[in-house]
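Data availability (excerpt). The following record was deposited with the supplementary files.
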Amino acid sequence: MGLVREAAWQAILSIPQGVWWGLTWFGDSGLLLPVGLLIALWLASSRRTWPAAGLWVLIFGTACMLVLLFKLAFLGWGVGSASLNFTGISGHTMLSASIWPVALWLLASRGTHELRVGLAVFGWVLAACIGISRLAIYAHSASEVAAGYLLGMAVSAGFLALQRRMAHPRLRASLVALSLLLPLVQLQPGHAAPTHGLIERMAMRLAGVERPYTRDDLHRPAKVDASGYRWPVL
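Predicted structure:
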């Protein structure tokens, strides 16, 4: 297993970094959070599909809140796992696995069932590639990417499975595609949204610390006080 893992990692490293940076941009919150909102708006465009819109907002919103809480817990209080090298759920990976399968499914809402399923599967493959890009650029650990992918798959697969019992939207692919390009007005390709910095400032304010915790802090030795509580050494 170790040889397979090493061979896979070497294969990843053999691909130019520019490719991975380009892929990781497709998971940026500045691009995908607006797309998530657009999905809700398209689903709510007809009264008969309002239940599907409500379902999407509930499932996707819950996943976003989980990612935020994990990030705040680590950045503000250092809650993480050194053994798993885990500092929080990968937001890029979660957003990608949640949104791309549903967005592509929506794009083919007037197509055949086979086409919709095929595009959703392509969305999961794209999300996996985006997750790998987070490893390749050293933005996340394997545990963080895996957590993000599993959570995102639960969102998209859960939504697509549950919405089959509800009214199905039938939208023009050209209009859906055009709307999905709207986030590019605010976020140019290759430019990251300032989301992480905002979360860092929020965590510092909530926890009352002067700087956010980092991965280096997670792996530093801990000091033990009189009560036996292990405090990270800053």
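Summary of structural features: The chain has ten helices and two strands.
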